[in-house]
Amino acid sequence: MVKQRDTINNLSPYIPGKPIEEVKRELGLDRVIKLASNENPLGNSPAATKAVQEWSENMAIYPDGNSTRLKMALSEKLNIDPDQLLLGAGTDQILEIIAQTYINPGDNTIMGCPSFPRYESVVKVMDGQSIEVPLTGDYRMDLNGFLEKINERTRIIWLCNPNNPTGTMITSEEQLDFIRKVPKDILIVLDEAYYEYAKGGDYPESLELLNEFDNLIILRTFSKAYGLAGLRIGYAISNKEIIGYMNRVRGPFNTNTGAQLAAIAALQDQDFIEKSIQSNNQGKEYLYSVFEEMGLEYIPTYANFIMVNINLSSVEVFKALLKKGVIIRSGDIYGMDDWIRVTIGTKEENEIFVKALKEVINDFS
Ligand SMILES: Cc1ncc(COP(=O)(O)O)c(C=O)c1O
């Protein structure tokens, strides 16, 4: 028997949102809606579809490992140097690259609790430890709590903003104050997967901080507002030195041509992004009003998902909703047993979800 590394014994596979086809097959349902993985309910820009269709005639050729054209497009949009960018197969892969680049065995990293679970797993694989700082009473990052946990083995701080699963935001002022207080040899990862939904108001424009601080990595993705989750493409923005070290770790062809072309096309279709944000705002207001009418506590969100307290076992409610063809996320995964996380869908999807939720809650009471 081949022996795996000891560390692997302490890992469990990531449990993704259930795929629609699997639920249809298992439960014999004709229609299933998935409001579990914070995907864009409007799909993706038609321009991205066209780009992938054109590429599909040419799949024999390896991708451009440097993602040159996509980097050019991003650098123009963001007004940064292409060498400040690293592309990954989703930001998820970039999290792995960050941990592989910066974590020695025994090092630790600090994250909120609950927050995006992948921060913990990428660090564990590298024989590092995760220090978890509980959210404040209003479900926000306890940044003072983070500062208290820093020790001589701390290498990375993960700031999920807005935070998944709570949708809460760290303001520009809070973030700047925090970054100033963190020792300069600790990397701060600003995970802005939901940037397009959150931007404006008090939400930080973190790019501006890259000139002042050299210990920052900003993560953004094409999986959420851009609607390209299936293609797997996201990016890191930092200084040239950090990107240079991460490029040593990155696989040579880690993003595929279809993803690169679709991302370029999607970037040019900002109307689609505007439409997506508008739809999200409308869905958010609708769901807020329904939750209020039902007397359910919810956490106001800066992203495209809402955490709502259903005062019942989230696992049971998850199963009951599944039987009605609605996939959501149960809060137990995040230590919030009475809560569910629902992605804001289209108008029709939101209405189907609400009807199903009312029936389920009724059945349980
Ligand atoms: C906070 C956060 N970061 C990163 C990711 C990973 O996204 P992707 O790998 O699709 O870019 C997600 C996906 O749900 C997320 O919620």
Q: What is the CA-atom radius of gyration, in angstroms?
A: 21 Å
Gross morphology: globular
Mean pLDDT: 97
Percent of residues in beta strands: 15-25%
Short description:
The chain has helices at 20-27, 46-55, 68-78, 90-102, 118-125, 143-149, 172-181, 195-198, 240-249, 257-268, 270-294, 314-323, 347-364, and strands spanning 33-34, 85-88, 108-113, 129-134, 154-160, 187-191, 216-221, 234-237, 298-299, 305-309, 326-327, 329-330, 339-343.
Structure write-up:
With 365 residues, this protein is of the alpha/beta class. The chain folds into two domains: 6-44 and 271-364, Aspartate Aminotransferase, domain 1, CATH 3.90.1150.10; 46-269, Type I PLP-dependent aspartate aminotransferase-like (Major domain) (Aspartate Aminotransferase, domain 2, 3-Layer(aba) Sandwich). The protein has helices at 20-27, 46-55, 68-78, 90-102, 118-125, 143-149, 172-181, 195-198, 240-249, 257-268, 270-294, 314-323, 347-364, and strands spanning 33-34, 85-88, 108-113, 129-134, 154-160, 187-191, 216-221, 234-237, 298-299, 305-309, 326-327, 329-330, 339-343. Helix 7 (172-181) links the parallel strand 5 (154-160) and strand 6 (187-191). Helix 2 (46-55) packs antiparallel against helix 10 (257-268), helix 4 crosses helix 5 (118-125) and helix 11 packs parallel to helix 13 (347-364). The mean pLDDT is 97. Bound molecules: pyridoxal-5'-phosphate (PLP). Pyridoxal-5'-phosphate binds next to helix 4.
